[in-house]
Amino acid sequence: MLEKTVFFRATSQANSLPKSVAEIVLSGRSNVGKSSVINALCLQKNLARISKTPGRTRSINVYSVAMRKWIIDLPGYGFARISLQEKKLWNKMIEECIVQRKSKKVVYIIIDAFVGPTELDFDMAHWLDDYGVMFKVVANKFDKMPSGVTKAEVKIKAAECFGIDESDVFTVSAKKRNGFDKLKIDIVEFLDR
Ligand SMILES: Nc1nc2c(ncn2[C@@H]2O[C@H](COP(=O)(O)OP(=O)(O)OP(=O)(O)O)[C@@H](O)[C@H]2O)c(=O)[nH]1
Ligand SMILES: [Mg+2]
After folding, report:
1. 19-55: per-residue pLDDT in tens?
2. Beta-strand (E) ranges in 17-142?
3. Which pTM value belongs to this model?
């Protein structure tokens, strides 16, 4: 199902988007691999733009999996070289996208498996919780972990840190395109529910 995903729209004004039936939203620190995860999920190379320069995705990019079923790539947070003005705009954009639009959604917070969750990720999780928005966690860049560390260990730790169920943590490597089976099932089940 996800292989058929196509680019739908880029916008900084989520209010202007039509209604969706269901959507999954990818959020996370800048450069953590959100766009790479989308490409890996959809088995495509250049669907979402990947960049070595953090803060590249500045708009909300919407991808259509099926009729009104979306994957939304949010601009990353925690990008250092950003003005207060830009930060305010980011907050407004995210709030419009996630809170004001009442569509059925789940947010996947993408973290760097090697770096581990950061304060900014916890802020995001708390903020989502406050608004009653369901979130799960994807630990990307697992290929950077020392060889002795298992996916199970990463999962347990992340689940503990975020106070969520282990089954709501996914460990992947977008670079190696590894570990996506469970995440794909989770996404497709949600979109089709
Ligand atoms: N080692 C490793 N590098 C990765 C992985 N996934 C992404 N990267 C690299 O991380 C960098 C950022 O990837 P993006 O997918 O553009 O990250 P993003 O989160 O969309 O970044 P912004 O749009 O700037 O917020 C690129 O250099 C990717 O090649 C991974 O699984 N392992
Ligand atoms: Mg991006």
Report:
1. 999 999 999 999 999 999 999 999 999 999 877 666 6
2. 22-28, 60-66, 69-73, 105-112, 135-140
3. 0.95
